[in-house]
From TrEMBL:
Gene3D superfamilies: 3.40.1190.20
Pfam families with a match to the protein in the record: Phos_pyr_kin
Domain of life: Bacteria
GO biological process, one term: thiamine biosynthetic process
Protein name: pyridoxal kinase
Entry EC no(s): 2.7.1.35
Protein family (similarity comment): Belongs to the ThiD family.
Spans through the membrane: none
Enzyme class, UniProt record, top EC level: transferase
Amino acid sequence: MKKAMTVAGSDSSGGAGLQADLKTFQEFGIYGMSALTTIVTMDPKNGWAHNVFPTPVNVLEAQMETILSVGIDAMKTGMLGSVEIIELVARKIDELKLDKVVIDPVMVCKGEDEVLHPETAIALRDVLVPRATVVTPNLFEAAQLAGTAPIKTIEDMKQAAEKIHALGAKYVLIKGGNKLDHDKAIDLLFDGKEFEILESEKIETTNTHGAGCSSSAAITAQLAEGKSVKEAIYTAKDFITEAVRHSWKMNEYVGPVNHGAYHKYGTPNKVTQ
């Protein structure tokens, strides 16, 4: 059975983080294993405010050693939380020469608008992005990695993608989703030579909790299965489109995507390139 590792935070509400990753791996028939970096809780008495509780680095390393002793076919990262954790993950990638690495450069919790720790954003850029097979920033994260102004257009996405690719990532996938002023949900893929615009139906909803984690997990699962990077990204785009289409409102604060929708309901509007 193909196996994948996620090195990520725990979302106590179940919609994002390693919970989303493991659900997504399962949807693609991949055996998922997780190394917990942080525990994120939400305070229902204080407007769903996020609280972050880091895992000690030695505890994370013990988890990774357990997983890597079994062996993996692909891996992804999510919320890492500290420079020390980022350096540990980079060291493990190098030691085992891992070559199917998806870096989801998580910098904020959903609903927050400031980088959790600016120094971790710098370490993500300088330490992990150069080791990425695919790096999957959203518009905010792409601007942070590229050192550009906020991204508002497809041309802005292209400029940021070139800068991020120059850091060392083999493929850059900037996820525009429904944030761009466009009638389609737009993502941009750059392989260092060519740009590809990926379009899918734009679904107007605020129930998108876990979309980024789930998208990068779907790419990871497909890489573990042996698919090419582009095949993996196209499938992930279809997967997350259906997950968002069938998303649901959990409470007054959050609505998660539906991880089972892709296989349960099919893909009526596939991604176009």
